[in-house]
Amino acid sequence: MSEIKSPLPREVADTYVDELxxxxxxxxTFLGVKESSSRLPDTSPAGQEAVAELARRTLARLxxxxxxxxxxxxxxxRCARLLRERLTAELAVHEADESLRSVSNLSSIAHAVxxxxxxxxxxxxxxxxxxAERLRAVPTALEGYRESLALGLERKLYxxxxxxxxxxxxLGEWADTDGQGLGxxxxxxxxxxxxxxxxxxxxxxxATEAVVRLRDWMRDVYAPAVEGAPDVxxxxxYARWVRYFNGxxxxxDEAYAYGWSEYHRLLGxxxxxxxxxxxxxxxxxxxxxxxxxxxxxxxxxDEVREWLxxxxxxxxxxxxGTHFDLxxxxxxxxxxxxxxxxxxxxxxxxxxxxxxxxxxxWLPTMGKTRFPVYDLxxxxxxxxxxxxxxQLAQWKxxxxxxxxxxxxxxxxxxxxxxxxxxxxxxxxxxxxxxxxERRLGYxxxxxxxxxxxxxxxxxxxxxxxxxxxxFHPGERWTPELAQEFFGSHSSRPADFxxxxxxxxxxxxxxxxxYKLGERAWLLGREQARARHGxxxxxxxxxxxxxxxxxxxxxxxxxxxxxx
Length: 563
What we know:
This protein is mainly α and 563 residues long. It has a domain at 242-514. It has helices spanning 9-23, 25-31, 45-65, 74-95, 109-119, 125-154, 161-175, 184-189, 197-226, 234-246, 252-277, 284-294, 301-319, 377-383, 388-397, 404-409, 413-429, 436-461, 479-488, 494-506, 513-532, 538-546, 553-561; strands at residues 297-299, 333-337, 347-349, 359-363, 370-372.
């Protein structure tokens, strides 16, 4: 009888993906697993514990796999490194019962339940039959989420009052998207085939009724219970979330100081660009306000979607073959308008594993029909090309050389957001920001990421504002001071600033990953350049870097410097 060999790390990782998809059909849909289209996960505490138990079993399998001959090859080592780091970080969050107080304006079970419909296949009658079944699953999924939050209340684990109030308003909009009683799920289902009209309409109404029940419970039970609870999380919880979102145990005080150093550097550059636009402007944001009224802009929602598509298409044509080598299927990316009730920030959804669903950028319009160009160009370099799309689509493209886990499920937020911010800087380095408007918009976006580091760490840890700060020196950060500081150092409107602050409060440690991730990418490139000297090939380095899959920031610089 031949000996049965234990699997290598990549096999362990892919087995984990298969077992996770069985428990979490939302992940399955994002990966492009057709069988997931009709289901939603068990979102109750028991369902979440089942996912955690899978992680524990997988870590035990990984222990054995790493002892096998061949486990020390580059591809196996990187996969094992990521899988261990991610599952360990996820378990730390789960075992601290963070899911029992997960209330957010951007990232919660309820948001995932809604968003998955925007990427569920909807081309055929068979697709829509699966959607109808998934719609019928919405009430149970939202009830499981409510059950988790209720258990959190029993254990005195409270979500933030500010995020709770915002979420209640969002649920109201989802329940009545058009202001005339038609909910988001009903609007979505209305585009389905006539042959399934009755079935879809009934299921969508039931989904909307479930949204209303959750809203009413959040408003009438949850919100009063958490009133007076802190919106900030404190150092211990913050450190746990930093590991989850960044894949590293940061020196938080050093990171806070780095945020301030970037703030001062960027402010000097912004003043120089602002002088070209509005000589004598008191601050760069006065010049940006001038651009809001008098700068280049796009009129119309359809028109801005088309313009953003052309911006990405032009970037692909200019970069492919010169700074990147792109496979044909990676060259496809679509610009779309975000559904009503979204948070204020643009976002990206990656392609399915087989590329049958393309990568998409999403613009929340927030009711606007006029869009200044300065605020969009570097943002779409970030969300689309060469930002999120090139990285995440390339991971899918080389998945057979990595693992399905590395190409999708195991994404570290700071790795991806760091690359996307690095991509903005790269386009500046390559000369694509051709005028003062676009360059000031880019610097404003960079400043927002530096401000995020300052206020996200500052308010959650209640740190002191430095004495050399032009803003409230010597005072301790509060969410109110953070909102004031952000508002006075951003071109974004008040509703965007409000949405962003709520996001930072309800997703502690995530917002710092943009700037700290960019720092890791820049350091990795610098070390690789020093290692190769005159032989350093930026295009080859970029493609190798984009083909190694995700890594936490602890590991990213080390791997990038070896390429």
